[in-house]
Design a protein that fits this description.
Elements (H helix, E strand, L loop, with lengths): L1 H25 L7 H9 L16 E14 L5 E13 L15 E5 L8 E3 L15 E5 L3 E13 L11 E10 L7 E8 L10 E14 L7 E13 L2 H21 L7 H24 L9 H27 L6 H12 L1 H6 L6 H10 L2 H39 L4
Parallel strand pairs: 1-8
Antiparallel strand pairs: 1-2, 2-6, 3-5, 4-7, 5-6, 7-10, 9-10
Helix pairs in contact: 3-4, 3-5, 4-5, 5-9, 6-9, 8-9
Length: about 425
């Protein structure tokens, strides 16, 4: 058994040494082809050092950007931009004479084996810029010009104001630059940003996308500065679906509440409809609690609308119950008699509020009804008159409240 184990170890060592010899023999810088060129270029090459002979020299990086998707998450206010990035720079250590390699003037190299600029989002959400370098290829020309094309995502925090949701519009900033190379060692130039692809995304419409160059001081030498880029993105939410599922139902709920106030207080449908409205409002509010973050000092006006709708429906239910109790009352306070007398004198109030109360009808009922019953009937009629009058006042009050809520919402529509 011991001899067998030694035999297995011997076989493994032979296999590993064979692979290493094969890899070593596969790289021959004297070959006049692409393989030999790669071996010659990468021999003694340090991918962690800038490609300059003098540390004061500047590496100029030209950059183009084509955003393909822009998203702003409602739960955590995270702006994410997925984009095609095109960068090129000159690496003085990656130059050669094409004649020496049979006219070969360009070669593809693994980006992890050469120096590449670490263009990242300068925010707390930034990821390792070299994380995907092993899966990218760089085109290197004989002049030392290096071209890199890749897809990446930049993330940043965007403080979103959802007051006018779903008609909200947000201005977000994304800062791009190098975290490793500050000062004049790296000069980043953003030549172009093409936003035609994401003008109308699935969730957001890109109204504006402007890049700005910011010259920052390093905090070291007095005149030492570096450049980073600020991308200012203006996003407007596509609101057509949300209008259908939230705004129009909210208008319908307001109409139902106002219409209920014209039903008789003894009608059972009044309580049923108000209870159904409260249930619907609570369901909407529960959905909003999952849709929006719990923090923030300015919740959407639509959330406040459904919150106020619950309060208004609750007030209507309470007043309905009190009104039913008053209609069964056999006594009346002095102020009720004075109020009815005042309203009888102001006939235009009854006309405008559509309250029908006839003194002749009351007198006729009083003559045909026995004295005790006549008195009770008269009291109930006066209470009914008061309840109807109060319903009309609530209708006017809640109509003004809903108009105020709609007018606050109107500027965003």
């Amino acid at each position: 058994m011991i001899l067998l184990n030694y035999f297995y170890i011997f076989l493994i060592c032979i296999t590993i040494s064979g692979v290493l010899c094969k890899e070593e023999s596969s790289c021959n810088e004297n070959e006049l082809n692409a393989n030999g060129l790669k071996c010659s270029l990468l021999k003694d090459y340090d991918p962690l050092e800038r490609p300059v002979k003098n540390y004061k020299d500047v590496v100029h990086v030209n950059m183009r950007m084509i955003p393909v998707e822009i998203n702003l998450a409602d739960q955590n206010d995270q702006l994410t931009i997925t984009a095609w990035m095109f960068m090129n720079w000159t690496d003085i250590f990656l130059k050669w004479e094409p004649k020496r390699y049979n006219g070969l003037d360009a070669v593809m190299l693994d980006c992890s084996s050469i120096w590449i600029p670490d263009i990242i989002s300068l925010s707390i959400l930034a990821e390792d810029p070299y994380e995907s370098a092993a899966h990218m290829l760089c085109k290197v020309e004989s002049s030392g010009n290096v071209s890199l094309q890749y897809t990446t995502s930049f993330s940043s925090y965007c403080s979103a104001d959802r007051t006018y949701w779903p008609f909200d519009e947000h201005t977000c900033n994304l800062h791009l630059g190098s975290r490793q190379f500050l000062g004049p060692s790296l000069d980043i130039s953003l030549e172009d940003v093409m936003t035609d692809v994401v003008k109308n995304g699935k969730e957001w419409q890109v109204k504006d996308f402007d890049p700005y160059a910011l010259v920052m001081k390093t905090g070291g030498h007095e005149n030492e500065t570096y450049t980073r880029w600020k991308l200012q993105i203006v996003l407007k939410r596509h609101s057509s679906v949300y209008q259908t599922t939230f705004v129009f139902p909210g208008i319908g709920i307001a109409i139902i509440i106002l219409a209920v106030l014209w039903l008789d207080v003894l009608s059972p449908e009044r309580i049923y409809m108000l209870s159904l409205v409260i249930f619907n409002d609570i369901m909407f509010l529960e959905y909003f609690s999952f849709l929006f973050p719990s923090g923030g000092s300015r919740p959407p006006l639509l959330v406040k609308f459904f919150r106020d709708s619950v309060a208004i429906s609750g007030i209507c239910i309470v007043t309905t119950i009190i009104s039913r109790i008053l209609l069964n009352s056999k006594s009346k306070p002095d102020w009720l008699t004075a109020l009815i007398r005042l309203l009888n004198e102001k006939t235009y109030i009854k006309t405008y509020l559509l309250i029908d109360i006839s003194e002749n009808a009351e007198a006729k009922d009083a003559e045909e009804t026995p004295a005790p019953l006549s008195l009770v009937t008269q009291i109930q009629k006066e209470w009914r008159f008061f309840v109807t009058f109060f319903d009309r006042l609530l209708f006017i009050l809640f109509t003004l409240v809903y108009l105020y809520l709609f007018l606050k919402f109107y500027p965003a529509i």
